[in-house]
Amino acid sequence: MSKIIENSKNDTENKKTRIAVFVSGSGSNLQSIIDNIENGTLNCEISYVIADRECFGLERAEKHGIKSIMLDKKLFGNKLSDEISAILENNIEKTDYIVLAGYLSILSESFISKWNRKIINIHPSLLPKFGGKGMYGMNVHRAVIEAKETESGCTIHFVDTGVDTGEIILQIKVPVLSNDTPEILQKRVLEKEHILLIKGIKKLIEN
Ligand code: GRF
Question: pTM of the entire structure?
Answer without folding.
Answer: 0.92
